[in-house]
Every structure is written in structure tokens, then in C-alpha cells.
Write a structure and sequence with these properties.
The chain has about 240 residues and is an alpha/beta fold. It contains seven helices and ten strands. Helix 3 packs across helix 4 and helix 3 runs parallel beside helix 5. The longest helix is centred in the middle third of the chain and has 14 residues.
């Protein structure tokens, strides 16, 4: 592929929270335009850390980060890239901070320079897209866990990003809400990385599966087969199925 298609390029990233074993151990990874990648791995293996390093929320002790073909080192570099990359946090309470749903969803467009009228229109359109019409005046902290997660996704999509990093987007969702997110993602013309333990969801929404193993990211083909017998296209990845 052409170099212009390369969006995220990490080389030999080393990150540790202490002097103990690194969480990310000389990790290398590339995301290109059109890629829809699922990322799996046990809790605590570094998947969320990986996202936060991409966004500049955590800084590695070694390695290089290029976003949209530009090396990023300082906060101003990451600040520019964050306007083009949408991050959905694992915990919705880390994402939502305004009194009402409309204010939360409109905050991103306002921060990008939209007028209050434009930001409101974008927010209402984005909420409707997720079947959240009528939620605009709801008090954010009174939402259920699943509702918070859907509104959090709306805050990300309202900023019209080029790339999505979604950390456990289906946690706490009922079947109807999960279907809503699945259909929304399938309809997006965006590149993205999804962290999830739900292999059925990833099978519907991604084209490639990677796994975090020993501080590195490996392709599906590099992993060992699992021991129980059934057939689907992610069969080489160790995983669980939801009952």
C-alpha cells in the first residue's frame, strides 16, 4: 500500500508503569486506511495502555510513534492528531462530564470551532443516528451504564474523526443496544481498532483480529489454536463465547 494510507505506525514501543516487566515490550503496529481491526487479550495485558500511548496520554520510554505520517513527540503534536482520532474510553464516566447529554455530545464540535447552532445540530443528528433521539435533555449521571456507553460513542462520532479507537464498546449493553452499535460501525466509512472480549461482535465488525501477547501485538495467524471445537473465522484466537 502507499505510504499515504498509513495512519498509525508504532515501532519498538517500550512502556512500563514501574521497574517491573514492561506492559508494552518493543511493540510494533501499523493501521492503514480501511483497516478494521479487533484486538483481544486477557484483562491487564496492556490493550488500554496501547490506546493511551497512541493518543499521547501515556509516553513510552523507548520507540517511535508516527500518526498520519508525522512523528509525534510533544503534546502539541498529539493535540493535532487527537482532532482526527476518536477515543472511546473503557469507562464512560471518564468520557462524560457535562450536566446533560446534549452538552456532552456538542462539546467536541464546539471545541473544533463550530458555532453553538452547528454544534447542536451535529449533536442531535449523532444522537438520532444511535437511536438516542429524545436523550438530549437527560441528565448524564442518571443514565444507565449502557446508556452512558452509547452517549459516549455519540460524543466521539460527533467530532467526525478519521479513525476510531474503541475500548470495550459493548460492555454493559443489552442485545438491542449491541445490535445498534454493530450496525452503526458496519455503516461507517472509517478505519478503527476495537478492543473487545466478544468474538461474535468482532466477527461482525472487523476484518482482522490481533491479540496482545507478552507486551506485543500478534496477528491471528501467529497464535496457537484453541482446544474446543467449532468453526468461525477467528478460531485460532484463544477466547470465550458469551452464553
Amino acid at each position: 500500500m502507499e505510504l499515504d494510507n498509513l495512519i498509525i505506525n508504532l515501532k519498538d514501543i517500550l512502556f512500563s508503569y514501574s521497574e517491573a516487566k514492561p506492559v508494552l515490550d518493543r511493540l510494533s503496529f501499523q493501521l492503514r486506511r480501511g483497516d478494521r481491526i479487533g484486538l483481544v487479550g486477557p484483562n491487564g495485558c496492556g490493550k488500554t495502555t496501547f490506546f493511551h500511548v497512541i493518543m499521547g496520554l501515556l509516553r513510552p520510554s523507548a520507540g517511535t510513534i508516527e500518526l498520519f505520517n508525522k512523528p509525534v513527540h510533544e503534546e502539541k503534536d498529539f493535540r493535532e492528531a487527537r482532532r482526527r482520532i476518536g477515543l472511546l474510553f473503557q469507562d464512560p464516566d471518564d468520557q462524560l462530564f457535562s450536566p446533560t447529554v446534549l452538552e456532552d455530545v456538542a462539546f467536541g464540535p464546539l471545541n473544533l470551532g463550530k458555532s453553538p447552532e452547528e454544534a447542536r445540530a451535529i449533536a442531535l443528528k449523532t444522537l438520532a443516528r444511535l437511536d438516542l433521539a429524545g436523550f438530549e435533555n437527560r441528565v448524564t449521571y442518571k443514565l444507565s451504564g449502557g446508556e452512558k456507553r452509547l452517549v459516549s460513542l455519540a460524543t466521539v462520532l460527533a467530532m467526525d474523526p478519521e479513525v476510531l479507537l474503541l475500548d470495550e464498546p459493548t460492555n454493559g449493553l443489552d442485545e438491542e443496544a449491541m445490535e445498534r452499535i454493530t450496525e452503526t460501525l458496519k455503516g461507517l466509512d472509517l478505519s478503527y481498532i476495537l478492543i473487545s472480549h466478544n468474538l461474535d461482535f468482532l466477527s461482525e465488525t472487523t476484518d482482522w483480529l490481533h491479540a496482545m501477547v507478552s507486551g506485543k501485538i500478534l496477528l491471528d495467524e501467529a497464535l496457537e489454536p484453541h482446544t474446543h471445537i467449532h468453526t468461525h473465522r477467528f478460531g485460532r484466537v484463544p477466547h470465550e463465547h458469551k452464553p
